From TrEMBL, chain A:
Keywords, alphabetical: 2Fe-2S, Iron, Iron-sulfur, Metal-binding, Oxidoreductase
Pfam family, one: Fer2
InterPro entries registered for this protein in UniProt: 2Fe-2S-bd (IPR002888), 2Fe-2S-bd_dom_sf (IPR036884), 2Fe-2S_ferredoxin-like_sf (IPR036010), 2Fe-2S_ferredoxin-type (IPR001041), 2Fe2S_fd_BS (IPR006058), Beta-grasp_dom_sf (IPR012675), Diverse_Oxidoreductases (IPR051452)
Annotated organism of origin: Natrinema longum
GO MF: 2 iron, 2 sulfur cluster binding; metal ion binding; oxidoreductase activity
Occurrences of domain 2Fe-2S ferredoxin-type (ranges): 5-81
Keyword Iron-sulfur applies: yes
Protein name stated in the entry: (2Fe-2S)-binding protein
Source species, domain of life: Archaea
UniProtKB/TrEMBL annotation, chain B:
Record lineage: Archaea, Methanobacteriati, Methanobacteriota, Stenosarchaea group, Halobacteria
Domain FAD-binding PCMH-type: 1-176
Molecular function via GO: FAD binding; oxidoreductase activity
Spans annotated as Disordered: 248-268
InterPro entries: CO_DH_flav_C, CO_DH_flav_C_dom_sf, Diverse_Substr_Oxidored, FAD-bd_PCMH, FAD-bd_PCMH-like_sf, FAD-bd_PCMH_sub1, FAD-bd_PCMH_sub2, Mopterin_DH_FAD-bd
Name used for this protein in its record: Xanthine dehydrogenase family protein subunit M
Keyword field: FAD, Flavoprotein, Oxidoreductase
Top-rank taxon, per record: Archaea
Regions of compositional bias (Basic and acidic residues) in chain numbering: 258-268
Protein source organism: Natrinema longum
Length: 219, 295
């Protein structure tokens, strides 16, 4: 006979009361009891980070804790991102970043990457590349490599910052010289962000080129 | 893979946890769970009962008190990583915390749990050895303090009694002119150490080494002290020649096994190098030595 226990999980703002076996992992409760299959199971050994969710705001691997241990806690999964206030009509800036910067190919690791990225930007809205790499160091990607994932998170950090300035300014982004630009003007016709430096954020180039042109930090 | 069926208890107090340990036969303690959950899932551990101690209040402290740095049984690796006190005063702890596994695991895993797990490749055992720290355990007959030196027995085996629960890990607060550091070699984020060395130096007023303690990771059946190197250092002035010899002695005393990460000879050389680096940082942090700019 299997004993089950009633637990309450608040996932993406919605409270759920479910019965779970003591041995049931949190990731299985999320996927199978709550039918939120955006949280993935990758390696099943605690290495890959595909199952990363936020528990009370902190990223954890939901395959490394039992559902009973999350009783009473607030969880966030990838499904909750588009309902966040900073999400526009469609996607959260992080999700948008992964689309714009090609931060995924197969997409399997993406929910976990998004959760780690979200936790980072909540703590540190303007992270360095090194800080981004550290924040996603518990998440494995086997297709794109990490370059574009880092860019995706950088994209989101910039978008979120622009959004905040816009919000403080009553809805318009203000340029350094006081002229106003709308978010649409910051992107070209293809939706690509253009930083304004020639041969920089518009075209194909190496990091080294970018740094020397844009005068950014080198590693 | 799913864990086998088990019952779960969530005691609210240390006393309740200890009485559960006493009354139940086949049980496991679950703290941070970053090793325990996989062990249950792969059925390396198949206990009838799991005692989840995460509901015990007041065990997640990290503070200096009465001459000790006290780390409660539920203090997570991330708590150490984010602590200003650690950053300012405990170089080896500050070095180690960000090197443990990955960010998600550091948010759940505990320092005390890692020490209880007694994996010879674990980092904290070496640090606590180098700080000549203690493990505080609560059993049916009250509290028992076990010097770190006497704690580790075999891989995954310690001198903790079967009815005892670790409540605290503690190390003495730093003496004046004390510095410590930890260096670890691993292939990638999330890996256990291929080799690691924790060093702590206390200098006297003349700048000589009054006390040296070195703990090594992943090069023996438990975390171990490098006593020959320590003996060589004591009474000497810190410097590259002395540290070089200490590194050699630590390597000679270490006993690594060849595996997919490297052969034993390579690991011994790494013990040598890591120990020299840890000693260099420890001396610098002790305050009296300026580090030479490497060529």
């Amino acid at each position: 006979m299997t004993d089950t226990r009633e637990i309450t999980l608040t996932v993406n703002g919605t409270e759920h009361t479910i019965d779970v076996e003591p041995r049931q992992l949190l990731v299985h409760a999320i996927r199978e009891e709550l039918d939120l299959t955006g949280t993935h199971i990758g390696c099943d050994t605690g290495n890959c980070g595909a199952c990363t969710v936020l528990k009370d705001g902190e990223p954890i691997k939901s395959c490394l804790m039992f559902a009973t241990q999350a009783d009473g806690s607030e969880l966030m999964t990838v499904e909750g991102m588009e309902d966040l206030p900073e999400a526009g009509e469609d996607l959260h800036p992080l999700q948008e970043g992964f689309r714009e910067e090609h931060g995924l190919q197969c997409g399997y690791c993406t929910p976990g990457m998004l959760m780690s990225g979200k936790a980072l930007l909540d703590e540190n809205p303007d992270p360095s590349e090194e800080e981004i790499r550290e924040a996603i160091s518990g998440n494995l990607c086997r297709c794109t490599g990490y370059q574009n994932i880092v860019r995706s998170i950088e994209y989101a950090a910039e978008e979120l910052e622009a959004g905040e300035i816009a919000a403080a300014d009553g809805g318009v982004v203000t340029d350094a010289d006081g002229s106003t630009i709308t978010p649409a003007e910051m992107t070209d016709a293809d939706g690509e962000f253009d930083c304004g430096v020639e041969n920089c954020c518009g075209g194909p180039m190496t990091d080294r080129d970018h740094d020397s042109i844009a005068g950014g930090e080198s590693e | 893979m799913k864990a086998a069926q088990f019952e779960t208890h969530e005691p609210d107090t240390v006393e309740e946890a200890v009485s559960l340990l006493e009354s139940l036969d086949d049980r496991a303690i679950l703290a941070g769970g970053q090793s325990m959950v996989p062990m249950l899932r792969f059925r390396l551990a198949v206990p009838e009962t799991v005692i989840d101690i995460n509901c015990i209040d007041g065990l997640d402290y990290l503070e200096e008190e009465d001459g000790w740095l006290r780390i409660g049984a539920l203090t997570r690796h991330a708590d150490v990583e984010e602590s200003a006190l650690i950053d300012e005063r405990y170089g080896s702890f500050a070095d180690t915390a960000p090197l443990v596994a990955d960010p998600q695991i550091r948010n759940r895993g505990t320092v005390a749990g890692a020490i209880a797990q007694a994996d010879p490749k674990g980092d904290w055992g070496s640090v606590v050895l180098a700080h000549e720290g203690e493990v505080v355990a609560q059993g049916p007959d009250g509290e028992r303090v076990i010097p770190a030196e006497d704690f580790f027995l075999l891989p995954y085996d310690t001198t903790l009694d079967e009815n005892e629960l670790i409540t605290e890990i503690r190390v003495p607060t730093p003496a004046p002119r004390e510095g410590s550091a930890y260096h670890k070699l691993k292939r990638k984020v999330g890996d256990y150490a291929m080799a690691g060395s924790a060093a702590r130096l206390v200098l006297d007023e003349d700048g000589r080494i009054e006390n040296a303690a070195i703990g090594l990771t992943a090069v023996d059946i438990t975390n171990v002290r490098a006593t020959d190197a320590e003996d060589h250092l004591e009474g000497e002035r810190p410097g590259s020649e002395v540290f070089k010899r200490a590194g050699e002695l630590a390597a000679e005393q270490s006993n690594p096994e060849s595996d997919e990460h490297g052969d034993a000879g390579y690991k011994e050389r790494m013990v040598n190098v890591l120990t020299q680096r840890a000693l260099g940082d420890a001396a610098e942090r002790a305050g009296l030595v300026k580090r030479r700019v490497s060529q």
